[in-house]
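Long-time lurker, first post. I've been practising inverse folding by hand and with some scripts of my own, and I keep getting stuck on stretches where the structure tokens seem ambiguous. Below is the full token string for one chain I'm working on. Before anyone asks, I'm not after the true native sequence, just a reasonable design that respects the backbone. If someone could post their per-position residues I'd love to compare against what I wrote down in my notebook.
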């Protein structure tokens, strides 16, 4: 059914990238949900409040963190605010509700039922977050079995807020879903971002500095697909969903891979136990060394590639 005039749930909204895209289809209401208070706070400030973004970012120490990306980040947020507020969704009275909420709490946290759910790059987060709890509750089970339990929990929570004919679109990266066709999977593996030669060299620099400065050992991250497509779709069907389609998308990003890696650097440092200031300094050292040791021509020839899967489901 068309999104125009409907109520849409945006799961894992972050700071509003998917929300802004959904608004262009003229739903009457968007419920944007994310488990991160920092993300939902930023989204409210950009879309709904009158916060002076420049003053707020400066007061938050963003310039020191972002470095030469600060000006572009501020301009991006200001443009995002203007586009949303002048867009057709707001002009025609669309209502945006932003909530900080775990997907597992959806049935109690989202009033009523929605017409459509969009889960953009979201599902792997609650699966990972439940891992320790489920490993304790089910000792001895394999990681894949634990991940299946977690994924089914999430599907049940989503099912509890959709109308009987409601649609859900799930987008997940290749690290979460693996192709059933081994030949196509091998081709996709060769062209993933983690196979990018500049990505590997930057991570090698990162690991060397991390070992030299802090004595911490770390391996270069690799692609690690989890669920075969046919297995995941079977779970969806057993949880009361009809699988309408599965699509694979490859996206090539024509930019310097150093910038691509720099955006991901905070994620790489998420589980590294060193002071925050040391993380910022380490990130700058890695990027500076990468720019001076990896020629620009070589970097621009290594266009990063991202593989994603889209699953379209309907509640039966």
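-- Answer (accepted) --
I ran through it position by position. Result:
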């Amino acid at each position: 059914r068309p999104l125009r005039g409907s109520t849409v749930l945006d799961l894992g909204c972050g700071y509003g990238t998917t929300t802004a895209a959904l608004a262009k289809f003229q739903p009457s209401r968007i419920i944007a949900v994310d488990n991160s208070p920092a993300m939902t706070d930023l989204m409210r400030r950009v879309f709904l409040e009158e916060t002076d973004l420049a003053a707020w970012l400066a007061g938050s120490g963003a310039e020191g963190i972002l470095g030469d990306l600060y000006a572009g980040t501020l301009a991006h947020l200001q443009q995002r605010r203007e586009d949303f507020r002048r867009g057709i969704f707001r002009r025609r009275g669309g209502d945006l509700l932003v909530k900080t909420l775990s997907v597992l709490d959806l049935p109690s946290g989202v009033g009523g039922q929605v017409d459509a759910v969009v889960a953009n790059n979201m599902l792997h987060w609650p699966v990972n977050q439940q891992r320790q709890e489920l490993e304790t509750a089910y000792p001895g089970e394999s990681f894949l079995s634990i991940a299946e339990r977690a994924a089914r929990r999430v599907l049940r929570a989503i099912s509890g807020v959709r109308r009987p004919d409601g649609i859900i679109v799930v987008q997940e990266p290749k690290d979460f879903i693996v192709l059933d066709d081994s030949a196509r999977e091998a081709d996709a593996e060769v062209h993933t971002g983690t196979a990018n030669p500049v990505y590997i060299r930057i991570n090698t620099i990162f690991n060397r500095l991390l070992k030299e400065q802090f004595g911490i050992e770390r391996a270069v991250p690799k692609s690690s697909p989890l669920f075969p497509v046919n297995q995941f779709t079977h779970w969806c069907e057993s949880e009361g969903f009809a699988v309408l389609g599965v699509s694979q998308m490859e996206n090539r990003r024509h930019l310097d891979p150093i910038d691509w890696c720099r955006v991901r650097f905070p994620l790489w440092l998420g589980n590294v136990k060193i002071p925050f200031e040391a993380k910022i300094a380490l990130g700058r050292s890695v990027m500076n060394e990468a720019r001076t040791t990896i020629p620009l021509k070589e970097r621009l020839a290594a266009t990063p590639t991202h593989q994603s899967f889209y699953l379209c489901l309907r509640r039966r």
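A couple of notes from the structure itself: The radius of gyration is 21 Å. The chain is about 50% helix and 20% strand. Happy to go over any region you disagree with.
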